[in-house]
Specification:
With 200 residues, the chain is an alpha/beta fold. Helices cover 29% and strands 30% of the residues. It has helices spanning 3-13, 20-28, 44-51, 63-72, 108-121, 158-163, and strands at 34-38, 55-60, 79-83, 94-99, 122-133, 168-181, 187-199. It has a seven-stranded mixed sheet with strand order 3-2-1-4-5-7-6. The mean pLDDT is 91.
């Protein structure tokens, strides 16, 4: 995505309200309250996690994200930020891993490696909370401009998403299908699978 589009996107999403699945996940975590935010963007989920007493490790491949989050959370020593990709990030032991609309952009060739890293970093009983791009989303269409936006759009069918969680207890699985406009006013069809699951 071009720099001006990234800035606009971050401006539009810096104060996103906490999602019900993240609130569910937060309520499931006891101690230690350590979270990883994969693809932290403008930091709205970091803000939500910090408000609930978490130490948060946030990473994003975009330097604009890390610059903004460092400015936003510069007085909070419990927020640790790094500019990394899914595969280069050094995942700490955590009780919650959040991947909210971020694994969409993991290169397919790296996904299995990244998925194992996420699983391995979670404590026993730790919670994964995240979403996966479905095949009916505009971003999954062959006509979607990968040159204008992100070059990778990793798409999963429902059975594939569920198969990822063979070593978890599935706590909630929600399929979202809706049509509307993006924050930039562009028409979009959304097809997303949201999951909250506990590591066995």
């Amino acid at each position: 995505m071009a720099t001006d589009q990234i800035k606009t996107y971050y401006d539009d999403t810096k104060s996103t309200a906490i999602r019900p699945d993240l609130l569910q996940a937060i309520e499931l975590v006891k101690e230690p309250k350590i979270a990883v935010d994969c693809g932290c963007g403008a930091g709205s989920n970091i803000e939500n996690l910090a408000t609930h007493g978490f130490t948060v490790y946030g990473y994003d491949i975009e330097d604009e994200s890390i610059i903004r989050c460092k400015e936003r959370f510069n007085n909070n020593s419990k927020i640790i930020l790094s500019q990394d990709s899914f595969s280069t990030f050094d995942y700490p032991r955590a009780s919650l891993v959040l991947a909210d609309a971020s694994l969409f952009f993991c290169p397919e060739s790296e996904f299995d490696f990244v998925w194992h890293k996420i699983y391995d970093c979670l404590f026993a009983g730790g919670i994964f909370c995240g979403s996966f791009l479905g095949p009916h989303d505009t971003m999954a269409s062959p006509s979607y401009s990968k040159e204008s936006f992100w070059p990778n759009s990793l798409v999963f069918h429902e059975n594939k998403v569920k198969s990822l969680f063979k070593n978890y207890e599935m706590l909630s699985f929600t399929e979202h299908k809706l049509s509307g406009k993006t924050t930039q006013g562009v028409p979009h069809d959304w097809h997303i699978f949201s999951v909250v699951a506990k590591k066995i």
